[in-house]
Design a protein that fits this description.
The protein is α+β, with helices and mostly antiparallel strands. It has a single domain, classed as 3-Layer(aba) Sandwich (Uracil-DNA Glycosylase, subunit E). Strands 1-3-2 form a 3-stranded mixed β-sheet. The longest helix is centred in the first third of the chain and has 18 residues. It starts with 16 loop residues before the first helix and ends with a helix.
């Protein structure tokens, strides 16, 4: 587990593009070094913002939904989870539970 940006924030909207870029550089090095099978991102909005900062469109298009993504990084599959923060009103408890269970199933299939 790691944070993309290692500082407390009141919300994602206070993060700067430079912080995303620096966080991504560190995370990409960790992925390259440790070679996980899956990298899970908590937060659809954060995942979308990261692609925007990297000036890329995620493989599969701009619509991002929780679950396994078409993108890979150093061989790792990317998985997006809803953010369980109380500030996140986009997903119900059942939606979030289903997404986290899907990650557990995907991880079990790979290992």
């Amino acid at each position: 587990m790691t944070n993309l940006v290692a500082r407390p924030t009141p919300g994602i909207d206070t993060l700067t593009p430079l912080e995303y870029q620096e966080g991504w550089t560190i995370l990409e090095r960790k992925i390259e070094r440790f070679r996980p099978a899956i990298v899970a991102f908590v937060g659809v909005t954060m995942y979308r913002a990261l692609w925007r900062v990297l000036e890329q469109t995620p493989p599969g298009g701009a619509v991002i939904k929780p679950g396994i993504q078409k993108a890979t990084v150093h061989g790792a599959r990317l998985f997006v989870l809803p953010n369980p923060s109380g500030r996140n009103a986009h997903f119900s408890y059942d939606d979030m539970l289903a997404a986290f269970r899907a990650l557990a199933r995907a991880s079990a299939r790979i290992h």
